Amino acid sequence: MDINIIFRIAAVGIITAIVNQILKKADKDEIATITTLAGLVIVLLMVVDMISQLFDTLRTMFGLY
């Protein structure tokens, strides 16, 4: 596992938090909620990709098809 994925997840979280705060200050609460959900989906896709790679590695390691 590479440390870069942790930095990517942190960067998505920080950017999402900043955009969320800016939109809430501008009284755009609905759009702020949507951006928060979009950030969550991006991070979940990253994690799902990592889990997929883990299962592929396990499958090749144990010779499963």
Short account of what is shown:
The chain has helices at residues 4-25, 29-62.
Structural commentary:
This protein starts with a helix and ends with a helix. It has 65 residues and is an all-alpha fold. It has one domain. The protein is elongated, with a radius of gyration of 17 Å. The mean pLDDT is 93.
Q: What is the overall number of helices?
A: 2
Mean pLDDT figure: 93
What is the straight-line distance between the termini? 23 Å
**Largest pleated sheet:** none
Rg from C-alpha positions? 17 Å
- Looking at how many chains there are and whether they match, the oligomeric state comes to single chain
Topology pattern, helix = H, strand = E: HH
How many strand units?
A: 0
Helix-strand blueprint:
Elements: H1 4-25, H2 29-62
Helix pairs in contact: 1-2
Search tags:
0% strand, elongated, 86% helix, mainly alpha
